[in-house]
Amino acid sequence: MENLTDHHTFQRENRDRRETTGSAMRVLTTDVLVRAYTMGLFPMARTRGDSKLYWIDPEERGILPLPDFHVPRSLKKTLRQGRYRISVDTAFRAVMEGCAEAKTGREDTWINGQIVDLFCQLHAMGLAHSVESWDGDRLVGGLYGLALGGAFFGESMFSRATDASKVALVDLVARLKLGGFLLLDTQFITEHLSRFGATEIPRHHYKLLLAAALNEPAFFLPNPVDWSAALAPGP
Questions:
Q1: How crowded is residue 92: how many other Cβ atoms within 10 Å of its Cβ?
Q2: Is the distance from CB of 143 to CB of 156 less than 8 angstroms?
Q3: 5 pLDDT tier (thresholds 50, 70, 90)
Q4: What 8-state DSSP symbol labels residue 69?
Q5: Is 18 exposed, middle or buried (0-12, 13-18, 19+ CB in 10 A)?
Q6: Do 123 and 220 touch, CB atoms closer than 8 A?
Q7: Under the GO molecular function aspect, what terms does this record hold (predicted)?
Q8: Burial degree of 226 (CB within 10 A; 0-12, 13-18, 19+)
Q9: Contact in structure between 144 and 129 (CB atoms under 8 Å)
Q10: Count of H-run helices and E-run strands, the chain
Q11: CATH for 61-230?
């Protein structure tokens, strides 16, 4: 599975219309993972306990258009109150573990141990980032993803307190806009994300946006940002 020069050689259509998958992989390297993302692919496990990974290439791709990002009115109140303290890249593995933990309505997850280890390596390389929400010294929410060129691939988010992950998302969007990013890939969309303006686009359209974004320089800002920047026009 190291050769990604022609990803069609190891893909097959899954019965689920949302995804195209390849043969199961037991070992994946960061180099192959990064190249896969530049081609529009991403890995998932069937369960947290499954050691195998599968390439996913949705027919309809979820994105959150940065110029159209919308903050619900009720969330603006939370943001103005400053209920949570935001940090960046200070608790990356803890955020990943939070995203992988079971919760009501979701007893299992697609984030297995290999994904955690790979993304922690990418974090050490300066490619993967986390946004963390804190209530005092307690990590109550956050998200993580991969930054390549002007594209940010949002992987997952979690919340242990009301609006904690949403506040992290607003901070992320502000950070991406200020840093010159063009694309926020959400992979799929949920009702939660659709409230912020997330939408689905066909695979071929996504690949065009991805190619353009990868060729643009961008910088994931490490310093605190004002959440209101999320509402500013995108680049």
A1: 21
A2: yes
A3: very low
A4: -
A5: middle
A6: no
A7: leucyl-tRNA--protein transferase activity
A8: exposed
A9: yes
A10: 7, 11
A11: 3.40.630.70
- pLDDT computed for residue 48 by the predictor: 82
Q: What are phi and psi of 194, to 5 degrees?
A: -65, -25
Q: How far apart are CA 49 and CA 27, in angstroms?
A: 15
As a residue count, the chain comes to 235
CB atoms within 10 A of CB 118: 19
Neighbours of 223 (CB within 10 A): 7
Helix, strand, coil share of the chain (percent; to 5)? 35, 25, 40
Report d(CA 96, CA 83) in Å as an integer: 22
Distance, in Å, from the CA atom of 168 to the CA atom of 170, rounded to the nearest integer, reads: 5
Q: H-type helices in 133-215, by residue range?
A: 164-179, 191-194, 203-214
Distance CA 169, CA 143 (A): 7
pLDDT for the residue 117: 96
Contacts of residue 223, defined as CB under 8 A and 6 or more positions apart, other chains included, come to none
Distance CA 233, CA 23 (A): 42
Q: Which two tokens stand for residue 140?
A: 């109550």
Do the bridges between strand 151-159 and strand 183-187 make them parallel or antiparallel, or are there none, so unpaired? parallel
Q: Residue type at 189? A: I
Q: Please, are residues 179 and 221 in contact by the beta-carbon 8 Å criterion?
A: yes
Torsion angles phi and psi, residue 210, rounded to 5: -65, -45
Count Cβ atoms below 10 Å from residue 85 Cβ, excluding itself.
14
Give pLDDT tens digits for 135-159. Answer: 999 999 999 999 999 999 999 999 9
Locate the domains of the chain by residue range.
9-58, 61-230
